[in-house]
Amino acid sequence: MTINTGESEGLQPAKAVFYNDPKVRAIFWQIVAVGGVIAVFWFLIHNTMVNLERQNIASGFSFLDLEAGFAIGEGLVPYSAANSYWRAILVGLLNTIKVAVIGIVFATIIGTVVGVMRLSPNWLIARLATVYIETLRNVPLLLQLFFWYAMIVEVLPRAKEAYGPFLGVYLSNRGFNMPLPDTWGYLGLLGGFLVALIAVIWLYRRNKKIHDETGEIKNTLGPSMLIFAVGMMIGWLAGGAPTSLDSPEFKGFSFKGGGEVTSEFLALWLGLTLYTASFIAEIVRSGILAVSKGQWEAAGSLGLKRGQILRFIVLPQALRVIIPPTTSQYLNLTKNSSLAVAIGYPDIVGVTNTTINQSGQAIEGIAIIMSVYLTLSLSISLFMNWYNTKIALVER
Amino acid sequence: MANAQEAAAPNLGPAVELRHLHKWYGEFHVLKDINLTVRHGERVVVCGPSGSGKSTMIRCINRLEEHQRGHLFVDGLELTNDLKQIEAIRKEVGMVFQHFNLFPHMTVLENLILGPTWVRKVPRGEAIETAMMYLERVKIPEQAQKYPGQLSGGQQQRVAIARSLCMKPKIMLFDEPTSALDPEMIKEVLDVMVELAEEGMTMVCVTHEMGFARTVGDTMVFMDEGEIVEMEAPEEFFSNPKNERTKLFLSQILSH
Ligand SMILES: Nc1ncnc2c1ncn2[C@@H]1O[C@H](COP(=O)(O)OP(=O)(O)OP(=O)(O)O)[C@@H](O)[C@H]1O
Ligand SMILES: [Mg+2]
Known about the structure:
The complex is a heterodimer.
Chain A: H1 22-54, H2 85-118, H3 123-138, H4 141-155, E1 163-166, E2 169-172, E3 175-178, E4 180-181, H5 187-214, H6 221-238, E5 245-246, E6 249-251, E7 254-256, E8 259-262, H7 263-289, H8 293-301, H9 306-336, H10 348-359, H11 362-391
Antiparallel strand pairs in A: 1-2, 2-3, 3-8, 4-5, 6-7
Helix pairs in contact in A: 2-3, 2-7, 2-10, 3-7, 4-7, 5-6, 7-9, 8-9, 9-11, 10-11
Chain B: H1 2-8, E1 16-25, E2 28-38, E3 43-47, H2 54-61, E4 69-74, E5 77-78, H3 83-92, E6 93-96, H4 108-118, H5 124-137, H6 153-165, E7 171-175, H7 183-198, E8 202-206, H8 210-216, E9 219-224, E10 227-232, H9 234-239, H10 244-254
Parallel strand pairs in B: 3-8, 3-9, 6-7, 7-8
Antiparallel strand pairs in B: 1-2, 1-4, 4-5, 9-10
Helix pairs in contact in B: 4-5, 4-6, 5-6, 6-7
């Protein structure tokens, strides 16, 4: 059996001269571009190495094992000046991740609420949302950070005269000091919560199945809340019903015990959250507006309720428009967190900067910062892209 | 007890009744003293020049627009601000739009079963059976798993009709269902509508398809500048229009 390739019969399209073939041209330009980039990098690296050698500075990352010798204001892992640079940088990295994650969560919530508010038929609510958005997105973030930091440091009293306690929380210019659980018995509460979560997921699935099989629509919200309340109650009792808390107490010059949210973190978090939320609000608003009025009308004329229209028709379509630009806002928030330096929050940039000043290893330090942001940004992008494809439509 | 019997008894009154209906858009008086009664099983065809208020009137019937004065009854229930009442009426009134308004993120089948499962609370399996039956009726059962964007305009409009029918409505409203379609697709949609009329569906239809109006219409309504200018049986309406504005409109539209 012979396979007719068409060549023998002259069915192959006529070939262009090779230098006019778009494919050949594309490959040519790609080679030129890659070659150029390599040349520039080689030049930079070579020059640097020569200069470093001349100044007797050792290159490489071995300095990371040396003792850091500086203190860090706050961190998620234990750290002291006697620890290595490695550990110091880890503390900074975790601080960056902490403010970025909490910032992203709150910016999303506030942004969504404000975006929906701006569409409200209520004149006052819509106006308030507009003022919020226009003010926050038009003032430089750095200025806003200074503003929030000044508000906290200048307006709140010194730790000694802290306001409170409100439900055990003290407010001062050092930030918030709050009580924390102090026995393992509280794990029962957490356990109860997790069990309740599983039960609620099961309930949700069961109600969906009932709806598919009989058409009956069961209320999920009320029973879910009940399950959470009962589950956590039982968990708490099973943990021995602990009531003691590790409360902060003012001793000497500062609060001892309990948990602390520093004024630096608060200012950075507030600034990043409120600023980014104003952009997300606009994205949410345009996403909802992108769903045509006809969709509301068609769904409404089937007799669907407003909440059902939002859930089944409007949100799924709006999300498609909302997610890609929101991803950029998440990336912006994460990168903007490096402005922490300005108000003294020890993020990755701040800590690495100190490291550079002490060790002189500028190139390595900057390489670390760059790879951290690159990794964080790529992780966010990958996650959001995955989420986007998950909800994307096969529309056409 | 008496109430239950009343509810069970078929409503012998009109399917739709508009009494001295007025509507304004701000200062602009769109609907001026509209009086219209549609009997069960009656097919009313509404025509008139662009901007005369045809869409506005028909959209008042399922409360996509709100009227400001007068009364509007659908199947014996008065349309008021009461949300429950509006939902109850929308269940019984199907609407087909000029631009189809299918849900682009759902397959044809999902478009069809959404209303029945969440509003009529029909079991999913049964809703799918009904949906397939209506897709057969509009002659596109093979498209059930496709997305609206993958269909031609005529097919989309037939899906939209099927979507309304799946709710088992008592009354169907059509707002220029064929005017966004290419000529070769108009017939396939009109055929479906004619069939529906022959089965006795109560219909209010805004259209300029005069052939269709002649075949299935029981009553022709001509609107101009927010008023019902003429209301007549089709033979009389076409052969012997009384109003000057009707004559002008007919001469323009029939000369095409
Ligand atoms: N939301 C609105 N706000 C203000 N004016 C409106 C609105 N909707 C419609 N109108 C006006 O009301 C009048 C009637 O509109 P309607 O859509 O009912 O006309 P129509 O008879 O359906 O016309 P067409 O044949 O072009 O569809 C028009 O003059 C239109 O400009
Ligand atoms: Mg119209």
